[in-house]
Amino acid sequence: MADQKPDFDIVIIGSGPAGLTAAIYATRGGAATALFGGVAPGGQLLQTMEIENFPGFIDPVAGADLMTRMIKQVTRLGAVVFQESITGADLSARPFRFKAGSGKEYTAGAVIIATGAQARWLGIPSEQKFTGKGVSGCATCDGFFFRGKEICVIGGGDSAAEDALFLTKFAAKVYLVHRRDKLRASFRLQEKLRANPKVEIIYDHIPEEFIGEARLAAVNLKNVRTGAVRRLEVTGAFIAIGHTPATEAFKGKLALDEAGYIVTDEKTAASVPGVFAAGDVMDTRYKQAVVAAGTGCKAAMEALLFLEENKN
Ligand code: NAP
After folding, report:
1. Catalytic residue positions?
2. Is the peptide bond before 95 cis (omega within 30 degrees of 0)?
């Protein structure tokens, strides 16, 4: 390690279950820990209505509640939580240097990247045109505006299924539009979808064009088998087609796989010594809150060990 004493032993970037669990273990391991959580700390779970697969909660817990508890926990344990993002990182020498959204710079002996993944968009031109005017990437945020309306959700995974179920609280009808003939969502969510009279699943279709004047009025759906196009009269369309890892800031600095996920070994170590990654940003398979928390724990334990072994 260079002579200069860093501002923090460990900097954690990201405030989902991975980053926050890493902060719990880092502070309890005696490390001076800073967590950069972005402007709204809590990560993707802030968008999740109900979680019933996180151990320890007998009844479903709202994602926002769970994250608030974790943030309070790490603050009590002594981590410094910054409500801002890291906008630049120099990982070429230790201590590592970080630039925060405020423009301030910080240094650290080790870093844990837990920046998660961002919601993906379809990428068709009319999608952008109607974003905020009927097309949305966040059911939890915008569902309320579609009381009594007919709407659709695009996607076939757990997120799309959860969004569709959530939206039935407001909408008169929710079409779930999936590009294949089988949903990817878990068995339990599929059961709930089928039991809900407001949900209709449309298989084998993809959105071709969003249509309307000032606001969305319909979606043209293309049958991927026959090529036929049908018009679905909906005033809302929620896109839930998965996520892309938030690794833009680390391109060229760390080994990433072809989809942009941070490549780590089984101990969460990234390609640069002293850099660790946890949660959805390195998890191409599970993407579960409890797994993210688990990798956050591993990353913090490995970072503590790294600092111990590289004192001088
Ligand atoms: P996901 O599992 O990757 O599912 C994405 C869905 O979108 C898939 O059905 C996919 O179709 C479809 N899709 C992808 N690109 C598309 C495109 N360009 N056009 C049309 N459809 C497209 O993503 P997710 O649902 O966000 O879930 C991510 C992870 O979080 C998963 O591991 C999931 O289990 C987990 N999760 C868990 C919960 C929970 O346990 N309560 C809630 C939310 C998420 P294909 O099926 O054909 O690939």
Report:
1. 138, 141-142
2. yes
pTM here is 0.80
The atom number, within ligand 1, closest to the CA of 161 reads 25
CB atoms within 10 A of CB 72: 11
- Max Cα separation, the chain? 68
Inter-axis angle of helices 187-195 and 158-167, nearest 10: 30
Determine the Cα–Cα distance for residues 228 and 278; give it in Å rounded to an integer.
43
CB 140 within 8 A of CB 304: no
Per the listing, tokens 């695009």 go with 154
Q: Which residue's CA is the nearest one to ligand 1's atom 39? A: 158
Tens place of pLDDT for every residue, the chain, 312 residues? 445 689 999 999 999 999 999 999 999 999 999 999 988 888 888 877 778 889 999 998 998 999 999 999 999 999 999 999 999 999 999 999 999 999 999 999 999 999 999 889 999 999 999 998 999 988 887 898 899 999 999 999 999 999 999 999 999 999 999 999 999 999 999 999 999 999 999 999 999 999 999 999 999 999 999 999 999 999 999 999 988 999 999 999 999 999 999 999 999 999 999 999 999 999 988 888 999 999 999 999 999 999 999 986
**Complete domains list, the chain, with CATH:** 8-118+243-309 (3.50.50.60), 121-239 (3.50.50.60)
Pocket of ligand 1 (CB under 6 A): 53, 122, 154-160, 162, 179-180, 184, 206, 241-243, 287
Site to substitute for ligand 1 among 50, 184, 191, 285, most atoms within 8 A of C-beta: 184
Nearest to 239, CA basis, from 14, 47, 43, 60 = 47
Which residues does residue 97 pair with via DSSP β-bridges, in sequence order? 90, 107
Q: What is the rounded CA–CA span in Å between residue 306 and residue 24?
A: 17
